[in-house]
Amino acid sequence: MRVLVIGSGGREHTLCWKIGQSPLVQEVFCAPGNGGIAQDAICINLAADDIAGLARFAKDNVIDLTVVGPEAPLVSGIVDAFQAEGLAVFGPSGRAALLEGSKAFAKKMMHACSIPTARFGLFTDAGSARSYIQEADFPVVVKADGLAAGKGVIVTSSREEAFAALDEVMVKKAFGDAGSTVVIEERLTGEEASFIAVCDGEHIVALASSQDHKPALDNDEGPNTGGMGAYSPAPVVDSATHDMVIERILHPLVSGLRAKGITYRGVIYAGLMVTESGPKVLEFNVRLGDPETQPLLMRCTSDIVPVLLEVAKGGSIKGMEFEWAAGPGVCVVLASGGYPGPYDKGRVISGLGQAERIDGVKVFHAGTRLQSGSIVTSGGRVLGVTAVDNDLKAAIDKAYRAVSLISFEGMHYRRDIGHKALKRLS
Ligand code: AMP
Ligand code: GLY
User: Which domain, by its residues, includes 62?
Assistant: First the structure.
């Protein structure tokens, strides 16, 4: 088989690396890829949102399976466009991808399917949104409805902060049209976890649990990022919680969508807050998590291609399963100076080879490119240094040992990836 992966981040590097190990696969292409992906796949100079160009490439090069990494092309309907050309593509249709593309749509679905989530209101005018905040007897989170590169969510602690957040989103349009509709919801407390599964429109095959670290600094301080590290499994998702997510969240959602004429095929990712009264949904994503994919796929001992292919072809994954190494996986993200604000680019990275010589370590590239024989930085999140070992402490130590060998000017990272799980386990 010839497989095309779309995207250019750490998640896509991990997908290329894993898919390339499948005995079913002869060649892996990635569009557009990055400096590290070029070592595991053939990079194609086409942007992830160039849907027509990508479909033409897939047809001309007889691609047997396309796997879409990021949400933006999914929400723009890349899957519908590929299917119209008779191409096998893994990911939800544009209508199904609204689950991530519109937080208002996601909340309406959760409400209609009685899925546990924060109490909320949806608003298209600032006046009614202000009244809702005024009357709410709980702290709120203000969310822009549309895609905002992971930035359209403002968690507030007082009415004043909530009014200011609303002003940013709806009046000053900090996230553009994404903020024309806002969701205002109850601020939940608990521990967050990522629950990721594959769905064929009816059956659900769960991946192992994982946990992201969104704030930029240790102890969950500082501004939110795309994710500064992750580990899998997440002990906060115990087996009772796991079953609740499948039975009370994912199955009702998929049935509810089907009742609306939407067949959900692809990855479904529930961002959870595990509260005292059980798991509640913070958001749905329609693709794999980044950086959760890095430790997840490093722990995955089965071939993922048969599942992806079956879903892409509209088949059934009933009874299929992923297998996992017993030992955990940990990913530490190395970021550019300034990230998540404006950041430097073009800094030479050293030590990659040494880090990867450690057994059980793989360095996935997120924002890198090849420049006259050197790997240099080209994005905010640069590398995902990922390690597996027999226990969490050993995996964390190994990941940080690899990190200590890598350097570039301005590099920063969190030093407490996995610590919440260590605390829970002890
Ligand atoms: P989202 O993009 O919806 O996942 O939101 C980004 C981050 O905001 C989440 O990872 C949480 O840390 C936080 N967040 C979102 N919704 C809530 C909520 N209802 N209560 C508390 N925190 C939230
Ligand atoms: N790691 C968070 C996300 O992929 O949305």
Answer: 2-91
